Amino acid sequence: MKRKTKWKQTLFTGLCITVVSEIYWNLFYDGLRISLSVVLFPVLIMTMDLETNTLWTGITSGGMIFVFRSAAAYVSGAGVIPAIQSALPGGLYYLFYSLLFFFLVQNKYMARFPRLIISVLCCDFISNMFENFLRNGFPIQKRRVFELLSVAVVRTILVGFILLLIERYRFLLTKKEHEQRYQRLFLMTAGLKNEIYFMKKNTEEIEEIMSNSYRLYEALSNQQVKLQTKEWALMIARDVHEIKKDYICIIRGLEQEVRNQYPEKEMWFSDILTILRDATYRMIESKHLNISLNFQYQHDFLTQAHYSVMLLLKNLVNNSVEAIALSEEKNHRKHRVDITEQLAGQTYQISVSDDGPGISEKNIPKIFQHGFSTKFDLENGNMFRGVGLSGVRSTVEEQFHGTIRVESQPNVKTEFHMEIPASALERGLR
């Protein structure tokens, strides 16, 4: 933390302590303030002022309290000397407290909770004794010692409780952040898996081009054509072969990276739906849409094909959200997107439906064609790639040996219905 920032933080802590110190009770005798600022002081030292020297925090807080109380007493009619005398013990209390805390807790980062609590108790009690001495001198009555110890114990319990709450809150924030990172990593990996799948399909086409080029070379070799023409055909076959090798190396590198970054081999269907729901709601929020999600499953199952299942559902759900976003009624009423799953015999029936604008009857036969799309980017007017639904059908039919169909009533309901053998999902074909 920069020095300027540290000073701002220290001044802010001093201001907080000064203000809260004016909330107090005189429980035992006049002059001894039982204030919640003594509870707040160690809490701020261990949280907001963790990187700041404890002595500077104590000097700043004590100095601000001394100035404030002296000024308040003077304004109330006390003389300069009486005002200083009444305010000085309170200011020195925080200086003495910070001095004790500095020696008892030398490394605030490494301080264990039991040691920290004992240190807070000692600082509170001894500092109270010190302030009592400044106000009343020696000897200190046994009853007064018991009263000061009781106050220190109660305030220390409050400090411990608050620190535990803060630690719990931080743990929950960290856990939530880790879960979000896990979800983003899983979605990114699923997307890479999808691209790798299409790249592998493209290698088959590259292989076909290379074979055709070589067959062309052989055909030209048996004909009376220029030697340069034959060499061109052979050169094309060689170049395509080199491209194929580089392509395969890229695919292997991506696959290795995916395995290293996300080694999970299986996942429950319910967890897939949870990740998809969270990601989709973030997407809905970013587009300022009024859409509710209703994801229900009848039979939870563990699958090794979690990437593929996520891609199927994510593509279909995203299509629904994007279609609603492009519709004229997106802000006129609340829309919904549903996922339902049930096991019928040895077949999983999974449906994704929405109440968006729907698909026109003439486009239904084309929607699974590679490159076909009715959506476009509103910012630049470019058409979408049109590989989402094509990939969905390829995954359902080629990887899972299932079927997919679509039914649509414009502005009423559009539903994609998939039937996949249970053995394919639960076994997790690759």
UniProtKB/TrEMBL annotation:
UniProt keyword annotations, A-Z: ATP-binding, Kinase, Membrane, Nucleotide-binding, Phosphoprotein, Transferase, Transmembrane, Transmembrane helix, Two-component regulatory system
Pfam families: HATPase_c
Coiled-coil parts of chain: none
EC assignment: 2.7.13.3
Segments crossing the lipid bilayer: 55-77, 83-104, 146-166
Gene Ontology terms for molecular function: ATP binding; protein histidine kinase activity
Record GO biological process: phosphorelay signal transduction system
Histidine kinase domain boundaries: 312-424
Name this protein carries in UniProt: Sensor histidine kinase GlnK
The species this protein was found in: Caproicibacter fermentans
